[in-house]
Amino acid sequence: MAQKQKISSLESLPQDLLGDIISKVAKYGHRDIRNCLQVSHELAIACQDGRVSKNLNLMPLAINPLATLNKYQPLMEKCLQAGNPEAHYIQGIKEYFYNDNIEIGLPHLQASAEGERRMEEGKKYLDKLEWAKSTTRSDRCWTNIKESLEGIPILQETVLL
């Protein structure tokens, strides 16, 4: 008769709750998720939750987006399907700059900019500018940003059809 393995209190939680917990761990990086995958069957199942892929911290991969061309492609596809903003950023950079595919690259970059974490960061900055009291300071900052961006030259190639 096979002996049943004892599971921890954490592993005995419902899968939905485990998925929520693991999705918060995912914000710290893929190594932590890899460790969860190796700990137990229950945690490995929870790692398959879409919230984990959406929240997975991919910033180390964003430093070198071309590294995701081969080695991390399955992970990238899973994160893109889950709407991970960093995955969209990496894919946008690859498509726009490496593959010279503006039509595919820009929507990915837009999805990244609209990502949940970016929104939270933006709200924090706006709160620092006390925009809820008055938009004067934030409007002035936005004007300064736009003026500084005007000085960045962008070369656009003419495409002959």
From TrEMBL:
Domain of life: Eukaryota
Annotated Pfam families: TPR_27 (PF23310)
Domain called At2g35280-like TPR: residue spans: 70-114
Stated name of the protein: F-box protein At2g35280-like
Underlying gene: LOC104715358
